[in-house]
């Protein structure tokens, strides 16, 4: 009860920021004094409490696997972690093909993302491409067959679709760090990431209809959400390329920085996110994806609720009663209004 009184008094001293949305459940009649602040003074007071975001050089180390028991070396990607920071970095390493992916690239990406998901010391994951010319130019057209993309001596597949789902479902933020071309299936990869930080040399666009391909899944639906249905049609029907600053205006990316600042800025965003509650971020990611991901989205969000519920005495009573072969006693738990 002491906690809820403290919370109550805190809510009565709340500051209201002009031009900001008022949270659901905010009850103006319970506010004793309303202090109107500009966004910049809010920023200042936040910095006083939280301190500046550190800007020191990040130190990457080749990632030790967290526990998938597979020690196969990567060929098509580089997987690094800045462990004392909680950041993992996954780099598509086929610069001679403008970081086009082949099935093996996708398999390695999925393995690295899986490891970063399982490693509880990792809080944010960066996805990028080697070099400055391309983030990713999509599927490797030289390996395209009638059955999808096929590595030598393997069957054809479109396994990048599984990777897209994995990134959406991953309960940690994934940031696309884009220098150069993010086109075709590479453009879709940046769109399924949670945030995109672009260098000023970045170029965005779809090429599918030019090369006899299309993505009628996330590549269409998420794009339409991001840039609106008309602009999405323009991007797909015309196959035009867009500069970083055009992409920023379209709402396709979060920010543009000079190429030489790209990693520094991306790491800064990671550090800023990492100061916040991982559970809040996990549930927010699930919530922000839930509608677009339909039943699978609801399942993700619902799973988070179950995970949180398992930590409560109420849930523990249910499990304990079952294990002790007695009826559960839920009478002491509140039926909250
Ligand atoms: C990216 C470019 C605009 C870069 O142009 P530039 O800087 O001038 O370099 P180039 O000289 O063109 O390229 C250098 C070198 O790289 C090779 N290369 C580049 N991209 C690819 C590629 N995608 N596949 C194979 N090889 C590539 C290029 O041939 C050069 O090789 P050399 O031997 O040195 O000549 C430009 O390169 C470009 O336009 N690239 C092609 C972009 C493209 O059309 N990509 C494919 C789009 S379709 C797709 O990605 C489908 C993917 C998929 O799997 C999928 C399928 C179904 C549903 C969903 C998906 C999905 O991804 O979501």
Automatic annotation (TrEMBL):
Where does the signal sequence lie?
none
Q: Which GO terms describe its molecular function?
A: 1,4-dihydroxy-2-naphthoyl-CoA synthase activity
**Enzyme class per UniProt:** lyase
Its GO CC terms are: cytosol
* InterPro entries according to UniProt: DHNA-CoA_synthase_MenB (IPR010198), Enoyl-CoA_hyd/isom_CS (IPR018376), Enoyl-CoA_hydra/iso (IPR001753)
Give a GO biological-process term.
Answer: menaquinone biosynthetic process
> One Pfam family from the UniProt entry?
ECH_1
Known catalytic reactions:
2-succinylbenzoyl-CoA + H(+) = 1,4-dihydroxy-2-naphthoyl-CoA + H2O
Q: What is its EC number?
A: 4.1.3.36
Q: Which domain of life is it from?
A: Eukaryota
- Protein keywords: Lyase
Family membership: Belongs to the enoyl-CoA hydratase/isomerase family.
Q: Which NCBIfam families match?
A: menB, PRK07396.1
Could you identify this protein by its name?
1,4-dihydroxy-2-naphthoyl-CoA synthase
Gene source species: Arabidopsis suecica
């Amino acid at each position: 009860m002491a906690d809820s009184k403290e919370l109550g008094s805190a809510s009565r001293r709340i500051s209201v920021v002009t031009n900001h949305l008022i949270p659901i459940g905010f009850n103006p009649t319970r506010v004793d004094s309303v202090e109107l602040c500009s966004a910049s003074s809010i920023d200042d007071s936040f910095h006083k409490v939280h301190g500046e975001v550190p800007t020191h050089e990040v130190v990457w180390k080749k990632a030790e696997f967290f526990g998938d028991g597979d020690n196969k070396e990567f060929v098509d990607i580089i997987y690094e972690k800045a462990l004392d920071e909680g950041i993992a970095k996954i780099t598509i390493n086929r610069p001679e093909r403008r970081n086009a992916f082949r099935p093996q690239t996708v398999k390695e990406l999925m393995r690295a993302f899986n490891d970063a998901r399982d490693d509880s010391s990792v809080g944010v994951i960066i996805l990028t491409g080697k070099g400055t010319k391309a983030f990713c130019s999509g599927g490797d057209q030289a390996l395209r067959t009638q059955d999808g993309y096929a590595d030598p001596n393997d069957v054809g597949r479109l396994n990048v679709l599984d990777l897209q789902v994995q990134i959406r479902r991953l309960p940690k933020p994934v940031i696309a760090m884009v220098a150069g071309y993010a086109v075709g299936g590479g453009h879709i990869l940046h769109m399924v990431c949670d945030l995109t930080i672009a260098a000023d040399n970045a170029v965005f666009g779809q090429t599918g209809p030019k090369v006899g391909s299309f993505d009628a899944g996330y590549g269409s639906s998420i794009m339409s959400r991001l840039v609106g249905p008309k602009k999405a049609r323009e991007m797909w029907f015309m196959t035009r390329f867009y500069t970083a600053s055009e992409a920023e205006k379209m709402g396709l990316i979060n920010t543009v920085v000079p190429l030489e600042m790209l990693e520094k800025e991306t790491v800064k965003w990671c550090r800023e996110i990492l100061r916040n509650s991982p559970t809040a971020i996990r549930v927010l990611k699930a919530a922000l994806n839930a509608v677009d991901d339909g039943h699978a989205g609801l399942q993700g969000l619902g799973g988070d609720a179950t995970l949180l519920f398992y930590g409560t005495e109420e849930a523990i009573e249910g499990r304990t009663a079952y294990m002790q072969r007695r009826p559960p006693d839920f009478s002491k738990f509140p039926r909250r209004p």
